[in-house]
Design goal:
Helix content is 40%, strand content 19%. The protein is of the alpha/beta class and 109 residues long. Helix 1 packs parallel to helix 2.
């Protein structure tokens, strides 16, 4: 619980500091979680302690659109995460909520 609170508070403080310093400048914030979402046809258990980061990310998207928050959820099992994450960071598209599961990429409808 303490780690979850500290993680969320650190993101919140970062966003508040960005607003004071950057103001109207468009920037990009990436929130990366592991197993915070269940995706695909077969439901999978989620990492409940990481799920609040998704809610905070959605609030950031709504309240701070110039920050261009993008949320990437990594496979709970692990694997080729670094390669998949780097590929996702290089990708330029309008998707703001992505779940990577192995070689599969899921986006929010």
């Amino acid at each position: 619980e303490a780690a979850q609170e500290a993680g969320l508070l650190s993101v919140l403080h970062l966003v508040q500091a960005w607003e004071k310093i950057a103001g109207d400048v468009e920037s990009r914030l990436l929130l990366v979680t592991r197993g915070a979402q269940s995706v695909g046809e077969r439901p999978e258990p989620v990492a409940v302690c990481q799920s609040p980061a998704l809610g905070l990310g959605r609030v950031i998207m709504s309240e701070y659109p110039r920050l261009r928050c993008k949320m990437i959820d990594l496979d709970p099992v692990g694997g080729e995460d670094v390669s998949s994450l780097l590929d996702e960071l290089r990708l330029v598209d309008e998707e703001d909520e992505i779940a990577l599961r192995g070689a599969d990429r899921y986006v929010r409808p």
